[in-house]
Each structure stands twice: as structure tokens, then as C-alpha cells.
Amino acid sequence: MQQSVGSSVNNIRHSAARRGALVLQLKKGVDNAPALGEELGKVLGTAATASALLHTSTIEIKDLGECATKEEVTAALDALLGVPVSKLDPVKSLRKAYAGTQVAVVALPDDLAATALKLGHVRISWVNGRIRAREEAARFYHCWGPGHMAARCKGPDRTELCYRCGLKGHQAKDCKGQLSSLRTADD
Questions:
Q1: If you write DSSP's letter for every residue of the chain in order, what string do you get?
Q2: What is the pLDDT of residue 52?
Q3: Which domains does the chain have, with CATH numbers?
Q4: Is residue 154 predicted with pLDDT exceeding 70?
Q5: What distances in angstroms separate CA 20 from CA 33, 48, 142, one per listed residue?
């Protein structure tokens, strides 16, 4: 165990986001990160958890039919990429768009996302959906400000506010209010 994991680790550091968490940074070119995570999980048992982090990219699949489901999108991506992505639960949202169409927001590992973007289209049911990259600015959950982390945050605490309307007591997915200027006030 020590030899297999130890030879793959580049350095060990504390996580800035989670107190008490250790991050093992692996050397470049290590292909078995998920297997190492499972092996560490077996050794640690219930004392701690181990998981492998994947760099993901977000893509959008546009022009889907109004009857398309998350399961159909996942099955089409499995077939298109030739890799079973269904265990990653890639479809993050499926929302209505113009003229009775839908847009699927999908998170995939970087290499699979690049392959999907090169292909450009995916057949889902009777419709060919366009695959496009989705650019999204990372925002800090505490203050919703872009481009910084917890250690450097001096903004107001907005963790209990709705991301859509800015009011307390509900989340954006349940929001019935109007879009607030609070989200863009600090940009």
C-alpha cells in the first residue's frame, strides 16, 4: 500500500476549503487516481473518507426536443463517446428554451468534454442537439464574488440567500421571484 500510493504522490497539503482535510497531489501522468482513492478508502475504513477529484468541464447541448429526459441525454452521450458516463451522473440540469426546445447542462471530465466538443452534435431521440462549451465564472459560495476563495474573502455572508432573487428562506431552484441585481452588483 505505502509503495503503490507513496510512489504516486507529489506532495501533501491541507485543504483551504475543508478544515482537517488533507489533499494528496499526485505526480503528472498518474493514470490510476480513482484506484488509489479506492485503495485508500479501504485502508482508512470509517476513520476517514478518500475520493479522487476529476477536473471537469461544462458543456451545453442545445435544441433538444421538449420530451427529452436526463436519462436519454446520458444514454446518447454513452453511445457518442463510447465510454459509460452514466455512473458520473453527468446531466446537471435540463431547462426549457425557446420554441419548445430544451438545453441540457452536462459536466464531463476534461478529455471527454473535449471529444464531445470536437464532434459538435449528438443525436437524442429524433433531434440532433448542438454541443457547445459553457463558460461559467466560478463564484465563492459565501459572498458570491468571483475569483477568490475563503481565505481572502472580505465580502458579506450571503449563504442563506436565494441566488436568483436575493431573499432569505428558499433556494434558487424553488424561487418564484424576479431576478435580483444583487447577483451582479459586485461584478
A1: -HHHHHTTEEEEEE-SSSTT-EEEEEPTT---HHHHHHHHHHHHTTS--------EEEEEEEEE-TT--HHHHHHHHHHHHSS--GGG--EEEEEE-GGG-EEEEEEEEHHHHHHHHHH-EEEETTEEEEEEE-----B-TTT--BS--GGG--S---TTB-TTT--BSS-GGG--SPPPTTTTTT-
A2: 63
A3: 1-44 (no CATH), 56-133 (3.30.70.330), 137-186 (4.10.60)
A4: yes
A5: 21, 11, 20
Whether the model clears a pTM of 0.70, i.e. scores above it, the answer is no
Query: pLDDT value at position 122?
Result: 94
Least confident range from 137-146, 163-172, 178-187: namely 178-187
For 127-150, the pLDDT digits (tens) are 999 999 987 766 777 777 777 667
Cα(96)–Cα(104) distance, integer angstroms: 9
